[in-house]
Amino acid sequence: MKRVFFVLLLCVTMLLPLGAAHDPAEPLYGFTTATSGPERDWENKFRAIPDTKILRDTMQRLSAHPHHVGSPYDKQNAEWILAQFKSWGLNAEIETFDVLFPTPKERVLELLEPARYTAKLQEPAVPQDPTSNQQSEQLPTYNAYSIDGDVTAPLVYVNYGLPKDYEALERLGVSVKGAIVIARYGNSWRGIKPKVAAEHGAIGCIIYSDPKDDGYFEDDVFPEGPMRNENGVQRGSVLDMPTYPGDPLTPGVGAKGNVKRLTVKEAATITKIPVLPISYGDARPLLAALKGRIGPPEFRGALDIPYHVGPGPAKVHLKLQFNWDIKPVYDVIVKIQGSESPDQWVVRGNHHDGWVNGAEDPISGQIALLEEARGLAQLLKQGWKPKRTIIYCAWDGEEPMLLGSTEWAEYHAEELRQHGAIYINTDGNGRGFLEVEGSHSLEKFVNGVARDTTDPEKNIPVWKRRQAEVLLRGKPEDRKEAHSRADLRIGALGSGSDYTAFIDHIGIASLNVGYGGEDQGGIYHSIYDDFYWYTHFSDTDFVYGRALAQTIGVMVMRFADSDVLPYDFTDFADTIHKYSDELKTMLKDRQEEIRDRNQALDDGMFNAISDPRRPIVPPAKEAVPPFINFAPLDNAEAALKASADRYARAVQKFGRGNPSSAQALQNLNAQLMQAERRLTNQDGLPRRPWYKHLIYAPGFYTGYDAKTLPGIREGIEEKRYQEAENEITRVAKALQDYAAVIDSAATELERLP
Amino acid sequence: MKRVFFVLLLCVTMLLPLGAAHDPAEPLYGFTTATSGPERDWENKFRAIPDTKILRDTMQRLSAHPHHVGSPYDKQNAEWILAQFKSWGLNAEIETFDVLFPTPKERVLELLEPARYTAKLQEPAVPQDPTSNQQSEQLPTYNAYSIDGDVTAPLVYVNYGLPKDYEALERLGVSVKGAIVIARYGNSWRGIKPKVAAEHGAIGCIIYSDPKDDGYFEDDVFPEGPMRNENGVQRGSVLDMPTYPGDPLTPGVGAKGNVKRLTVKEAATITKIPVLPISYGDARPLLAALKGRIGPPEFRGALDIPYHVGPGPAKVHLKLQFNWDIKPVYDVIVKIQGSESPDQWVVRGNHHDGWVNGAEDPISGQIALLEEARGLAQLLKQGWKPKRTIIYCAWDGEEPMLLGSTEWAEYHAEELRQHGAIYINTDGNGRGFLEVEGSHSLEKFVNGVARDTTDPEKNIPVWKRRQAEVLLRGKPEDRKEAHSRADLRIGALGSGSDYTAFIDHIGIASLNVGYGGEDQGGIYHSIYDDFYWYTHFSDTDFVYGRALAQTIGVMVMRFADSDVLPYDFTDFADTIHKYSDELKTMLKDRQEEIRDRNQALDDGMFNAISDPRRPIVPPAKEAVPPFINFAPLDNAEAALKASADRYARAVQKFGRGNPSSAQALQNLNAQLMQAERRLTNQDGLPRRPWYKHLIYAPGFYTGYDAKTLPGIREGIEEKRYQEAENEITRVAKALQDYAAVIDSAATELERLP
User: Fold this and answer.
1) pLDDT digits (tens, 9 = 90+) for A182-213
2) For the residues A720-730, what does the mean pLDDT come to?
């Protein structure tokens, strides 16, 4: 589904002036001086292979027809990808799962009062765009996993439909109880919007794309420009991803064969109210018919109307019925056996299914994956022998809810827990800056590869482009940090793509990687995300497709070839410290804020500023948050820092020493590979046991965005202070265990001759 | 012209819980315990007089027809106001000046390419609004003091048309040389826009009202709502107010009789390029025809189009010709002779001319002024004897360029320098919070009156409503200050209304006062600013009209009746210290910013982040600002603080002591009255000698907004560092002189028995 990338919080060093090359005399991280040389030679050979012509042709092939789950072309693509892998001499197979995938039977949206309007719910073909007219093959515009429903009610505009939007509405005295809400896309995983609406008593939910967010406010609209036109609709899943992803009928187990399935009614992740996505062409008559209070400034989009919130007089009828079918998803899996440590797995994936033609999402990432595989296959023929096993995965069914990857990871969970060393994900690609999110034990590794990868537009390391960006566009605190930190920061993983099961459910150190930031688009999940759009408005000459293949290919090789698995724990320790500080500050800020607000309530301040013509409903008084015990976390941080520093010294000494045999390093690497697993807990997070990682999770009310130290953070945010304190104990225990693994690994390293 | 009020930076004390009454046992500031009682009685009598029915009727009378300079109804209004004053037994007369006032002869605006569009330049009548159809009496939509011109050129969109907007355009590689620019209204005095455009080489300027700023982005449009509809146009002057206001042909002298006049060509304040204001209905086809780069986010308004900046392909023809006539302006002046100190003048004004019917601007303020005068006249009949002379002024010709007030002040400059104790201005009124800007020696006085004035909607002191606002909506630093400061802060005076000549040219301590903040409007300077609009969307029951009359009436009385003129210098000293800190921080920030930017330029950072498809033009390298000598200012601040504290102790002792005779206080008050004049310098500000106040001035590139310590501040902002250092010396000298006056006054006070 390709979440929209965020500009990462980055930090930089000033020690390396821009443009200075990475010192080739330095050993690669996880290698010795002696083993770095051959590795660099293989990497250089690899980088020469990805070909922009092939990238282009492959995109055209894979995006030539709609290829959603259950469509003929989805299956054809899987088979074509399989054939490609095999033609390069790789060991590949298709693994099939059977999952719930609803498609529309009936869709009706009408404005009944004060005037009548029937929503078109259609994306018309565009003459110059040759694949936009494949209407018989296209999925209609809908939100997958909306329940069936037939509701009529007054309309309320709820901005992005997030908890704070409902707070703003409460200040205006507006309730959505019994109403149909209309929310705009953006600022969260779309499934959050119907979830929060239902929590507040709404009986139906419409989601539209406001031109402020990906329409004419940003640039010209398609086909003149890249942005969403008045007919473009964002399809997409509304399953409750933060509860669990994957097939809603088989949580925690692979949906294969005669596995026990829940009924649709039993599935906790299906929406509670009917949901439908629409274009801004269809939304405008509805929004223009609203009266009542004007939304606060942050509610206002770019339509040429005042954004009243209602309720009414607009009255809306929404009727939705779906075919609740079980459909196959076809994962294409390649395995390259490791020569020395076949039990250590480097897993790399990108999905191949789209909502329609899906040129950007996901094919722009899939073509890089295929070029990597073609390149690695060539190297194998030239004698390259990766130490570890490499697994390439072209996932199916990502769009509905990470189905192919989640079911595969659940089905192979035990093997993955034993063998998973890293999972590297992509999900589409664009033009511009390297954008990475991932486990912070991989931050140094990512920085190393970024220093060794050349930006195709600037012919400087992609690392340096990123550094320039944070220095010129970063927040003041990030620029400042620039003077003291060696590595650029990577973001934390939330959810919205296929890494989710690997990091959050299994506990494998993971990355999500892409290029972007130079182009904007408004074709996401519409029929206009196709080859025509991509070759007019994005990485038109595919040089960033090549750069992505080079970046990830080198990551895979370096991880598979390293003497010592290239985790680093100092950046991780630093990041945990940062998160912990954030939590303490958040608690303190909330205490102050609530104390001040209670005082203002006692003093009648809200009444004093309230305009009688536009009254403010004062917030309720609430208890000031208690102080909670952060000491276990502080102690764990201290232990972590000591172990990480010790390990860093040992690994540096290793790099400058003599090479060791694979056998001598076997136990060390086996321990290192298990480190990330120590950050998981088999009970999972409070109320969502599928999510087992205690450091990273998608927020319960964000979906895409990560909540770090989620049990603690969401405990504080959602006013469950006792739970937050309990979570501190669990996190501290995990970090202590993790530190113990690092210590043990350091002991192994120090023991080497 | 009624500048749009800003929410003031306010600071509050927490010592007085909300709703607590001001202690009536405390003497009024400037009074003794004994004299406070009778003053309070007279003020209470006064407060009972202003009448909402009369306020309403008077508005309806004065706004019944267009009443711009030179119109029949402008003269009739002046005569009617004169008759009112006289009917109350007041000594009134009309004083006439003859000023340059151009009106349109020809107005043409056409889009020639890529399609043709001829701008309507018309505001149609609205059926339910009875005065909107007086077309034969209405001035056409135009900007007064635009030069004649006939230009054809490509169009460039320049956002608000301020210097930083042109910097943003430079980063995009866009020049306006030889182009016609289109700027949106807002964020500055409108005359800044053609001035800056001409400085950058543009040959014509169009100004339009974007719906983001006062149209549908904020609320429903007129007549359904209060905001500007697609046809509404903001007329207004574009004279270069920050150089000098008043008649452009007679700078510094009153335009009466055979005074020597410049030719139009010689007048420095008339625009260098032709300028025309238009509606967003007329602007949309022009803006939609632009291509080229998309403006950065801050350039984007609320029209339903991408905001391209051009240049072109839109090509525009602008032709303007004006009748350059001399017209009379009629100031109506009332004089109430003081009983004890007739040589000390309390001057109070609001203009009576409008751009069209002008119900809000200026009549909503004029009606309060008239009710004050009626009330004071009643008190006089009841035996009230103000110690000082009170002068009420209904100004004409404010809209074109503060003509009536400026010419009057220039004509009476010598008397005003001798006698002016305070000037109190209003310029329209609305509903909500008390908003005050002024000389900070009056800050404590304003706080005192605000504590004694009741808000009509909440029945609490207006001071407390304001306090609540800063506590709930203020910036963090303002809320924080709330715990340590006794008085709410008032803003500094920039320009845009009739106080300008009094504070900036003569050096009389001045105030600008109004209520507002609860209603929004988009009828400013259009035909829709009329009785219908005001009585549907603003202070519909005129209770804030009454509150304004009560507020200002009490200010006038308290200033005219006080034993010791109620200036306070501790708030002034505190404010100067704040300004001085701002300047030091600004210089330091600029040094750092330019140093960092130069480094980034040296390191090629701008090239590194530049998108080849949308290149960034790097800024030029520039010299890091030098350190400058703030020591004279620091020393002056120290002297000022010591004197202010000493005076505060003396005046507090005075308040609790026995009353003194007027004679005993004569010398003291004569000195106090001259204090503000010490803050002026007869050479004026650099390059604008008319502006003589060294502490407050309208910014050369802001117009409405004040620049405090303007010589120093603008020196730093505009990179004239030597000049800034020289200005420090001049300001320091003025502050030392000012401190000496305070010291001398303190000596007088201490000497009293």
Assistant:
1) 999 999 999 999 999 999 999 999 999 999 99
2) 98
Find the Cα–Cα–Cα–Cα dihedral B258, B263, B268, B269, rounded to 10°: 70
- Report residue A714: phi and psi, to 5°: -70, -30
Instruction: Please indicate whether, in this complex, the C-beta atoms of A603 and B303 are within 8 angstroms of each other.
Output: no
In-domain check, residue A607? yes
B614/A518 CB distance under 8 A: yes
pLDDT, residue A2, reads 52
Interface of A with B in 327-346 (CB under 8 A): none
Number of structural domains found in chain A: 3
**Region of residue A703 (phi > 0: left; psi between -120 and 50: alpha; otherwise: beta):** left
In a shared domain, residues A574 and A702: yes
- H helix runs in B383-515, sequence order: 398-401, 403-411, 413-419, 443-451, 462-473, 476-481, 500
Please state the rounded mean pLDDT for residues A631-645: 98
Give the start-end residues of each E strand in A593-705. 696-698
Q: Select from B259, B269, B351 the least CA-distant residue to B690.
A: B269
- Residue A608: closest C-alpha in chain B: B465
pLDDT digits (tens, 9 = 90+) for A366-416: 999 999 999 999 999 999 999 999 999 999 999 999 999 999 999 999 999
> Who wins on pLDDT, B25 or A76?
A76
ipTM attached to this prediction:
0.94
d(CA B178, CA B154) in angstroms, rounded, equals 8
Q: Are residues B538 and B598 in the same domain?
A: no
* Binding-face residues of A in 404-443 toward B, CB within 8 A: 431-432
Choose the closest CB to A457 out of B304, B457, B612.
Answer: B612
> Does A471 reach chain B within 8 Å, measured CB to CB?
yes
B 612-651 → A contacts, CB under 8 A: 612-614
Considering B302, B325, B348, which residue would you say is the last residue of a domain? B325
- Domain with residue A429: its CATH number is 3.40.630.10
Question: Per residue in A228-261, pLDDT tens?
Answer: 999 999 999 999 999 999 999 999 999 999 999 9
- What rounded mean pLDDT belongs to chain A? 95
Please indicate, yes or no, whether residues A398 and A408 belong to a single structural domain of this protein.
Answer: yes
C-alpha distances in angstroms, B396 versus B103, B147, B191?
17, 23, 20
Per CB-CB distance under 8 Å, the chain B contacts of A603 are: 17-19, 468
Q: Which of B463, B460, B453 is nearest to B433 (CA)?
A: B463
Shared domain for B47 and B57, answered yes or no, is yes
Which of A221, A483, A609 has the most B C-beta neighbours within 10 Å, making it the best mutation to test the interface with B? A609
- The secondary structure element, H or E, covering residue A435 is strand A432-438
Give the CATH number of the domain where residue A183 resides: 3.50.30.30
Distance to chain A for B503, nearest Cα, Å: 32
Q: Which residue segment(s) compose the domain that B339 sits in?
A: 33-99+326-561
pTM of the model: 0.96
Task: Report CB contact under 8 Å: B225, A306.
Answer: yes
In a domain, A127, yes or no: yes
B16 belongs to a structural domain: no
pLDDT tens by residue, A169-178: 999 999 999 9
Residue in the structure block whose two tokens are 């404005």: A111
Q: Residue A613 is encoded by which pair of tokens? A: 């013509």
Q: Which tokens is B491 given?
A: 């803003």
- Name the phi and psi angles at B417, rounded to 5: -60, -35
Residue ending a domain, among B293, B325, B357, is B325
B166 vs B309: CA distance, rounded Å: 11
Residue B555 near residue B511 (C-beta atoms within 8 A):
yes
Q: Which candidate, B749, B742, B688, B680, places its Cα nearest to that of B718?
A: B688
The Cα–Cα gap between A182 and B90 comes to: 62
Taking Cα atoms as reference points, which of A146, A316, A283 lies closest to residue A212? A283
A426/A361 Cα distance (integer angstroms): 10
